[in-house]
Amino acid sequence: MFRIHQHRVSKRSLEQWLSEYAVSHQNLINKKIHWLCVPAIFVSILGMGMSLSVCFTLVLSALVLLFYMQLSTPLFLGMGLFILICLAVMTLLPWGFKVWASIFVIAWIGQFVGHKIEGKKPSFFEDLQFLLIGPAWVANSLLPNKKSNDN
Q1: In the predicted model, is pLDDT for residue 148 greater than 80?
Q2: CA–CA dist 18, 110 (Å, integer)
Q3: Domain ranges of the chain
Q4: How far is CA 111 from CA 31, 38, 68, 88, in A?
Q5: DSSP letters along 86-127, please?
Q6: What's the pLDDT tens digit per position in 28-61?
């Protein structure tokens, strides 16, 4: 009567993910917008989560890190450090859910402006896993010895 569909994580390599993501991120203005807005979205999600449930946010962070660990150890370590820094800073900030939600909305508006300039739709319209690849794409541009020049 009911069918259970299993969603499997794609077996694409980090390089494949980044190359596919880069297709809709060629315009320099769009890239700069993404370098600012993608981390803002990521941090705001953590912030909203922390303001609602620390435990849920930690579990969600662990799941995100598992995804990154499957792709690349340096990416996993870099994103792990980034998440730890974000969570530590959030414990010092008195910001509530509304502030983090505002950052989230403003950053998404920026993302869509960037894609309007680019003339291409966001990658996550094709596959929701690209929502996790955006932060990886930004992080990859910061990592030494990066394997992809598509950033």
Answers
A1: no
A2: 21
A3: 33-140
A4: 10, 8, 22, 26
A5: HHHHHHH----HHHHHHHHHHHHHHHHHHHHHHTS--GGGT-
A6: 999 999 999 999 999 999 999 999 999 999 999 9
